[in-house]
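Aggregate trends can hide what the representation actually does to any particular protein. For completeness, the protein is quoted in full, as a sequence line and a line of structure tokens.
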Amino acid sequence: MELSSLQENLKQGLYIVSHVAGKNINLPILNNVLIEIKESNIKLITTNLEIGIVHTTRGKVTEEGSFTVDSKIFTDYINLLPNKKVNIVKKENEIIVECENYKTKIKGQDAEDFPLIPQVDRSQTYTTSVAEFKKAISQVVFAVSTSEARLELSGVFFSFNGNKLNMAATDSYRLAEKEIEVKTGDKNKEENKKIIIPARTLQEVLRILSGLKENGEEYKEIEISVSDNQILFTIGSTELVSRLIEGQYPDYKQIIPIGSKTTITINKRDIVRAVKASSLFSKTGINDVNLDFPAGKNQVIISSTSGQTGESVISLDADVTGEDNSAVINYRYLLDGLNNIEDDNIKIEVIDSNTPCIIKPEENNGYLYIIMPIKQ
């Protein structure tokens, strides 16, 4: 095996793939990156058996072959090289890396023991805007459950329906939902596909998409291919394969309140600052803040009281229509939702103090956030 490539190409490739190669004591080869040269393609491959990443990098191939080396050592070393041509040659159980006045030998393992990355059938493929997809994932993934008790809630629910993709995440206390447009092939235009993707997979996709932009490569579209128990994301010359979560996602649409008795429109920056100020006096472990919406006053009163630290009361101007109302809410959940809305103004819809309240942008852009109130 022999190849040469620019340091910046290898550096970017390793940034993309090296993150999933972790410290695996039971299967040490999973800590390695597989360098595979086949048909003049230079591929960098890593897997943790749940997620597999394949990145094809540019370079010149002298001799085909494959070998695995410790991902962290290889990545750290490549990152320290000057931005020049790097030559890599495999000799017996090591690779020799040369770049200008740098030369090193890194010991490794044969590629035969490296797990195969599953091949995903691409007949059911959806395409969407990278910018939209990135934003949508950020707006929902934070709401997944961190508990292992209900595995299906530790992922994000994807529902493909024609040219719409609905994403939802919930941990039973709050729910985030976002709808975006997708392009689809004629084969699966009419098909309604529902899957659950592990949160870690989507966080990895987010990291890769952010990294590509930082490295000067901007891709406009991402392809999503779905098979029975695997999903494949393709961005340019990078592919990420992941298993799906098996199970039935709860029918979350049932908990979305229909209609409201009080509707509030308020400046997002104002309410974020007021909630943060009141949170200083919330009860430890409960994280409660009171939101009061007095009828006919066009005001929102945000308050909290703690026996140990004191109390806070803040009045904000707002557009309030409907009945006298109030809700006690976990301020952390509230801030999570507010911080994921880009509009200057937000809308809050409340039925009563025991029903989930809805938070969304003033201009409806397919985003919805719901919080269960704290029962008094």
Q: What stands out?
A: The domain at 257-371 is CATH 3.10.150.10 (DNA Polymerase III; Chain A, domain 2).
